[in-house]
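A quick aside before the break. I want you to see a complete sequence-to-structure record at least once, exactly as it would be stored in a machine-readable document. Don't worry about memorizing anything.
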Amino acid sequence: MRVPKRWVALGVAAAAVATAAAVRSGGSAHGENGADAAAGQQALAVARQEFGRLSGGDWAGAWQLWTAAAQQAVPQEEFVRVNTQCRPALGVPYVLGTGSRTGPEAFRVEWTHAGAAGSSTLQLAAGRWHFAPDPQTLADFRLGADHVVQQRRASGSCH
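That is the input. The structure line, written in tokens, reads:
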């Protein structure tokens, strides 16, 4: 069935009006004000980038979105090597929840991926959101890349 172009245009216009109204209202279903809603959208955008890069195999790109502290704790070369030697499920998208502010400079988002579920934190620094790997991941990497690869292989999480 062919849809007339004017209906498509009308649908696009309606979506734009609804989006503009939502942004102008400044709120969300969670009662956020405009600034909180905008910050939440920005944090979610960074989370989408992070998880998109991970599911696409762009390990270096994912690492670049990390907080400065996480980057200091885990060298980029080690992160890339671990994920190259023990690949997570590639091409399987992460499904993100709406997320919520957990403080003035922190945002938490729930996710599912390849049958696993979890949550991750993003932190605001110098006006930009950055992905903060969980403390257990950082602790594992402190033991070295070879240790992380062995752990992942033992748990069957390499693909």
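Two observations worth writing down. The chain has a mean pLDDT of 81. The longest helix spans residues 34-56. We'll return to this after the break.
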